[in-house]
Write a structure and sequence with these properties.
alpha+beta; Bacterial Protein-export protein SecB
Length: 169
């Protein structure tokens, strides 16, 4: 069997192990909920020609260290559909992933956990939400893309702003 040696004569296996490393260990649904509290009446209400359901999306993400190099990132999507102030449906999904990160500076690690990891989880969460809504008897709703880079930048901007003085000061 032939041995392959890099052209510059250096051993590349050691250099690869020393650099920053990012790994995805697991993607899973941590929690899931679907409610249609006003069914079956809501199906008749939605059939009316003037019916205009309103959809509100709440998005949350959090990262927790499992050990020095392993993190659980949870992306929570809560979708509430209302019609004339009545809840049509409420869908909530906590899509989670376990990521291993090593060799990154703190600022890069925070950005990876705040941008890359949620970007990785979002397509899975979007599919679960779409399936829940459709399986609940409603027309499918496809979540638009989310710019996690912009959300992270806004979060960083808000954290760097000085605290507002009390209103009665």
């Amino acid at each position: 069997m032939a041995e392959v040696t890099p052209a510059n004569g250096q051993d590349t296996t050691q250099g690869q192990a020393d650099g920053p490393q990012l790994g995805l260990q697991k993607i899973y649904v941590k929690d899931i909920s679907f409610e249609a509290p006003n069914a079956p009446q809501v199906f008749q209400d939605m059939g009316a020609a003037e019916a205009q359901p309103q959809i509100q999306l709440n998005l949350n993400q959090k990262a927790a260290a499992l050990d020095e190099q392993t993190y659980e990132v949870v992306l929570t999507l809560t979708l509430t559909c209302t019609l004339d102030e009545k809840t049509v449906y409420l869908s909530e999904v906590q899509q989670a992933g376990i990521f291993s990160l090593s060799g990154f500076p703190d600022t890069d690690r925070e950005a990876i956990l705040g941008v890359y990891c949620p970007n990785t989880l979002f397509p899975y969460a979007r599919q679960v939400v779409t399936d829940l809504i459709q399986n609940g008897g409603f027309p499918p709703y496809f979540l638009p893309p989310i710019n996690f880079d912009a959300l992270y930048a806004e979060q960083q901007r808000q954290q760097s702003m000085p605290a507002a003085p009390p209103a009665n000061a």
